[in-house]
UniProtKB/TrEMBL annotation:
This is Polyribonucleotide nucleotidyltransferase 2, mitochondrial. It comes from Aristolochia fimbriata. Keywords: Exonuclease, Hydrolase, Nuclease, Nucleotidyltransferase, Repeat, RNA-binding, rRNA processing, Transferase, tRNA processing. SMART domains: S1. GO terms for molecular function: 3'-5'-RNA exonuclease activity; polyribonucleotide nucleotidyltransferase activity; RNA binding. GO terms for cellular component: chloroplast stroma; cytosol; mitochondrion. HAMAP family: PNPase (MF_01595).
Length: 970
């Protein structure tokens, strides 16, 4: 083993290796050098917020890099340019906006735990940056440029998109890339009629205007608006305020560039020489003008004719061997086309298709094109055609948004698709397209303002717009088609929304760059968009504007000219709405059995726990979709048949909330003398009373229903305690009866109702007298018919027969009357038992006197004997029925230590537990009398059937049932 020698720096061998010491213990470690960083800042205030530009601290190698901040929100923007020669005929500018989750202290929830492809919001924010900076690059500058804006931190109070746009402008100002900036970008809101500069995200949720405005010092570059039917006048006021406030971002950028800006680099510009342009103009101008002078040309016929002209020029140049002109031929021919079209419009007011400057193309509207979908429509304006479909989903189908600001979910989505066949091209579909996302978002903003609140529309709504043919303004056609499709889906929109695109053709002074003359075009074609100066899309209702998007090609347009475009846009929009309302002007009812169905209902938390494990299985078996929300379940099916299958399985697991008037399926669990108990899916129980079994009298419940039988029943009542009353006869058709039977049953009912005690303490002899007289007259007529062999229609039973059926007769009468004993329990017993012998005797005398009325003089002797027997039977029935009310409320009336007449409040006795129920006990009090004991809140104990308890009578229920209390509870 080698010994360690500190002077030479050796150490001992460990594990067979010879090494040197990592440091010398007697030497001081070297000190790291400090680097100085030159940082330049500019701070300024706009409104109530303080902004800050900073450069030089990070991203040194970019052509330009700026960090802009407002409070705790900071955005880094960088710009770079490629080193190539830039020989091409377009500007390859790419703008990327990035929101990474570290900016809000969150780890991404994706599988790889890192950000994936750009989200829709990132693409939209990238377009907000791209649209105002693109027109300011010099003409002929075709070098590749890339701008990247990254959100470094966000406090969630301010939307970083405006900060990113201003930071990109500042980065271009600092870079060596040629650019004719700077620009200012600002957001304006309006709350309670007052404009707010740079509103926070919370303020935007209360605002009816979200205006993003970009401009140079004196011209407008970009407008993006989402509003809630704001008037043209109010929008113009907001634009003029935004121009003033946005200009406040320009001066700080100029000062920052003076401190830290780089000298602009000399790039090679791809320009067409004047001589080459004049040569090609002379060869093609007349032929091009002849094509544009013929309005019979369609889009593709015109394009083929122009391509043929360009090919003829190419053939001449190839014969001459003019290589320089061949390189710029396509750009030169396009310049000549632009000159011809613009000159015809400005000088003669003639458009490509022969329309007037403010004419709208012919319209075609059709709703309900695809009947099996929730909603669909076709909208065409000229040769622009879109097919819109609506799909309704559950709240759980809402799109989840992982953005730094704004709501976490979105329940209304509009997806715009621009397939290659719409312009007769061959293309490849790859991922999200920036143009498609931008057009879809614009149409989504336009329709969002007229949707009902989420409380009134608890669904997720998705609109798909498929462009079938494109010849200009497909996004505005999507707005029109989407509005009709929503009404076809039954969604109650406030009003129809229509959109139209307005263009501009101007003549510019080449020396000053000022506009000398211009023309505003309503409903522009695709060619007019390409050769014109502006595409100003405006959508709204009759009452106001809901969305605006302005894209321009020159380096700015005066705001006064833009405001003049609002009036022709309104006229064109109203024409389109008139045509749309002729096709569909109200939500379409979804009453077709094959149409899709959506049902949302409330479910208890226990029901949701039972449903959750079986959700996927139900969806696979029924082809329906089940969405579980906060206390609700939403079921979506493609037709009624699938819906019924899915609901049957869902109800079986959760139990449906029983509502009065609804019809539900249940299973009979027990049969009693007074009715049957029915259990629904989920464990809910209801009482089917004997009087609700059939439209005719039922003597025994078991004759109609049995345990285990499945029934469809109607809920007729539900009290505050959740007790449910059911009816079977309410679901059955009324029986056909002739007039004689109806009269007989009415008379019989009058007798039974007269024989039941009501609120009165004694029986009204006068009432019975009048009723019996009318019945006896009917019997007299029936006796005359009986002599011809017919049986009487009124059957008067004996007292014994009445006693045998007291459960069905008296209990039914008690339930139907509804007025039987509504006073206190003590007065109830006095009422029932208070008929002493003297009162019974007076009632009998009253009945006897009623039979001695002169009406008997018109009855034959044989009928008189029958009446005498009937008199005795009725008297017995009337007297006995007075005590049957209490008897019918108990299970039976066997003799014992307790009887209904003797039990009073305060009596103490020993009872046995007969049955344990969810809310209390059924007690056997003796003598066939049963009472009940209600559980207190959270006071249920373990009770066993047959257990003896010491109880005291505390009260009586409204039906006369004794309510007991435990002695130990006192």
């Amino acid at each position: 083993m080698f010994l360690r020698r500190c002077k030479l720096g050796f150490r001992t061998i460990c594990g067979g290796r010879l090494g040197f010491m990592s440091s010398l213990p007697y030497l001081d470690p070297p000190m790291a050098r400090t680097q100085d960083i030159d940082t330049f800042t500019e701070e300024f205030e706009i409104g109530s917020h303080r902004f800050k530009f900073e450069t030089g601290k990070i991203a040194w190698f970019a052509n330009g890099a700026v960090v802009m901040g407002i409070e705790d929100t900071k955005v880094l923007s960088t710009v770079t340019s490629a080193k190539g020669d830039g020989v091409r005929d377009f500007l390859p500018l790419s703008v990327e906006y990035q929101e990474k989750q570290y900016a809000q202290g969150v780890i991404p929830t994706t599988f790889m735990r890192r950000e994936g492809a750009p989200k829709e919001r990132e693409l939209i924010c990238g377009r907000i940056i791209d649209r105002p900076i693109r027109p300011l690059f010099p003409s002929g500058f075709f070098h590749e440029v890339q701008a990247i804006a990254t959100v470094l931190s966000s406090d969630g109070k301010q939307d970083p998109d405006i900060i990113a746009a201003n930071a990109t402008s500042a980065a271009l100002m600092l870079s060596d890339i040629p650019w004719r900036g700077p620009i200012g970008v600002i957001r304006i809101g309006r709350i309670n009629g007052q404009f707010v500069v740079n509103p926070s995200t919370d303020e935007l949720s209360l605002s009816d205007l979200n205006l993003v405005y970009a401009c140079t010092k004196d011209k407008t570059l970009m407008i993006d608006v989402q509003a809630r039917e704001i008037s043209e006048k109010d929008l113009e006021a907001g634009l003029r305020l935004a121009h003033v406030e946005a200009g406040k971002f320009i001066e700080p950028q100029i000062r920052l560039a003076a401190k830290a800006g780089k000298a602009k680099k000399q790039y090679k510009l791809s320009m067409v020489s004047v001589s080459t342009l004049d040569k090609i103009r002379g060869m093609a101008e007349s032929s091009i003008e002849n094509v544009f002078s013929d309005p019979s040309y369609g889009k593709f016929e015109r394009g083929e004719a122009l391509d043929k002209i360009a090919q003829d020029v190419r053939n001449v140049l190839e014969e001459e061997g003019d290589e320089e002109s061949l390189k710029v031929l396509s750009k030169a021919v396009d310049t000549v086309r632009k000159e011809v079209v613009r000159r015809r419009i400005i000088e003669k007011g003639l458009r490509v298709d022969g329309r007037g400057l403010d004419d709208v193309r012919p319209l075609y509207c059709e709703s309900g094109y695809l009947s099996r979908l929730h909603g669909s429509s076709i909208f065409a304006r000229g040769f622009t055609q879109v097919l819109c479909t609506v799909t309704l989903g559950a709240p759980g189908d809402a799109q989840r948004l992982d953005s730094l600001v704004g709501p976490p979910t979105k329940r209304f989505m509009l997806h715009y698709s621009f397939p290659p066949y719409s312009i007769n091209e061959v293309g490849k579909r790859v991922g999200l397209n920036r143009r498609e996302v931008g057009h879809g978002t614009l149409a989504e903003k336009a329709l969002l303002a007229v949707l009902p609140p989420e409380d009134d529309l608890p669904f997720t709504v998705r609109i798909n717009s498929e462009v079938m043919a494109s010849d200009g303004s497909t996004s505005m056609a999507t707005v029109c088609g989407g509005s009709m499709a929503l009404l076809d889906a039954g969604i109650p929109l406030k009003e129809h929304v229509a959109g139209i695109s307005v263009g501009l053709v101007s003549e510019v002074d080449p020396l000053t760059g000022e506009i000398k003359d211009y023309r505003i075009l309503t409903d522009i074609l695709g060619l007019e968009d390409h050769l014109g100066d502006m595409d100003f899309k405006i959508a709204g209702t009759r009452r106001g504007i809901t969305a605006v998007q302005l894209d321009i090609k020159p380096a700015g347009i005066p705001l006064d000219i833009i405001c003049l475009c609002l009036e022709p846009a309104l006229k064109g929009r109203l024409q389109i709405i008139d045509r749309m309302e002729k096709e569909i002007n109200a939500p379409r009812p979804q009453d077709d059995r094959n149409s899709p169905r959506i049902i949302t209902f409330n479910v208890s938390n226990e029901g949701l726990r039972r449903l959750w494990p079986h959700k996927k299985r139900i969806e696979e078996e029924t082809s329906a979709r089940v969405s579980i929300g906060d206390g609700t379940v939403t079921t979506i099916a493609k037709n009624q048949e699938c819906m019924e299958k899915a609901l049957q399985k869902v109800y079986f697991l959760t139990g449906r909330e029983i509502e009065v008037g609804g019809i539900y399926k249940g299973v009979v669990t027990s049969v009693k003398e007074f009715g049957a108990f029915v259990e629904f899916n989920g464990g809910q129980q209801g009482l089917l009373h004997i009087s609700e079994l059939s439209h005719v009298k039922v003597c025994r419940v078991s004759d109609i229903v049995s345990v285990g039988q499945e029934l469809s029943l109607k809920c007729i009542d539900k009290d505050v305690r959740g007790n449910i009353s059911l009816s079977l006869k309410a679901t059955l058709p009324q029986p056909q009866k002739d007039d004689a039977k109806i009269k007989d049953l009415t008379s019989l009912k009058e007798i039974e109702d007269a024989c039941v005690m009501t609120k009165e303490t004694t029986l009204s002899a006068e009432k019975l007298d009048s009723v019996l007289k009318s019945v006896l007259i009917g019997q007299n007529n029936d006796d005359k018919k009986a002599s011809f062999g017919s049986s009487p229609s009124i059957v008067i039973r004996s007292a014994a027969e009445c006693d045998a059926q007291e459960c069905c007769t008296d209990q039914t009468s008690t339930t139907k009357s509804g007025d039987s004993v509504k006073s206190s329990s003590s007065s109830k017993l006095q009422t029932v038992t208070g008929l002493d012998r003297k009162k019974k005797s007076s009632a009998v005398n009253s009945l006897n006197s009623s039979f001695d009325a002169p009406v008997h003089k018109r009855v034959s002797s044989s009928a008189s004997k029958k009446n005498q027997k009937g008199k005795d039977k009725i008297i017995s029935s009337v007297v006995d029925s007075e005590t049957s009310v209490v008897k019918s409320t108990f299970s039976d009336s066997h003799s014992g230590s307790v009887s209904p007449n003797s039990l009073k409040i305060g009596d103490k006795l020993i009872a046995k537990v007969h049955q344990v129920r969810a809310r209390g006990l059924v007690l056997e009090l003796g003598g066939g009398v049963r009472g009940m004991y209600r559980f207190e809140v959270n006071g249920r104990k373990d009770f066993e059937e047959g257990k003896e308890l010491q109880v005291v009578c505390s009260s009586f229920s409204t039906k006369g049932i004794p309510v007991m209390s435990l002695l130990e509870d006192e």
